[in-house]
């Protein structure tokens, strides 16, 4: 009898440990006005797409809100993510499918930011930059070529996003803005990126000398509170829209994925065609 009891206790112990417990915590519960038929998600863009009888509703997890409404001209019962920027809708009564290409448009403040190109250009190309980033340096050379193709159609804007892992990136941004006080922002910007792997205090001073800046004014302007706040505002803006690294590129508020950067001319032409 004792052996049977011990065996029962052992089996019970094994059974209780074989079934893993799940720790869970509801993080978001929200009432929807329309009935939900199916759902798809794009984690890169922080979006959930709810399929309803009359529309697709893009929902931002971060904002905890439906941010737009894509109306449907036909009935569908299923939705899926076909690729990074395409949804596929299917239905069986009658049998049909539809592919929707989408781009989230992010709010980007470019007030008082340095730019190249026409002030009223139809295409605004924004780059969140870091002066110690080798990929930013490579992209800068390519963008110069692109601007040559579209001198009047593109407005190229810099947003400063110095990474904490780069010890002189913030100082580099302050120095570039200080050079801008003497009308030499873009020259300083270009030289810093050309020397992205050598940026330090001495290199900053060397570039200022090469550009024949007034060193007394340059030293003073490197401490401007307005420049410090502008960089902090760029960092906040970037973090709010999901920027985590550099370069991060946006065209008319639409995020350009890294593998698409080589297609910038094609993407610009597409934007011009939409205007």
What keywords describe this structure?
alpha+beta, 275 residues, five-stranded antiparallel β-sheet, five-stranded mixed β-sheet
How would you briefly describe this protein structure?
This protein has 275 residues and is an alpha+beta fold. 36% of the residues lie in helices and 23% in strands.
Report what the structure shows.
The chain has 275 residues and is of the alpha+beta class. The protein is built from 8 helices and 13 strands. The protein has helices at 2-18, 134-149, 169-180, 185-194, 201-210, 215-221, 225-240, 264-274, and strands at 38-42, 47-51, 55-60, 65-66, 70-71, 78-83, 86-92, 95-101, 115-117, 123-129, 154-160, 248-251, 254-256. Strands 1, 2, 3, 4 and 5 form a 5-stranded antiparallel sheet that branches. The N and C termini lie far apart (86 Å).
Q: Secondary-structure map with pairings?
A:
Layout: H1 2-18, E1 38-42, E2 47-51, E3 55-60, E4 65-66, E5 70-71, E6 78-83, E7 86-92, E8 95-101, E9 115-117, E10 123-129, H2 134-149, E11 154-160, H3 169-180, H4 185-194, H5 201-210, H6 215-221, H7 225-240, E12 248-251, E13 254-256, H8 264-274
Parallel strand pairs: 10-11
Antiparallel strand pairs: 1-2, 2-3, 3-4, 3-5, 6-7, 7-8, 9-11, 10-12, 12-13
Helix pairs in contact: 3-4, 3-6
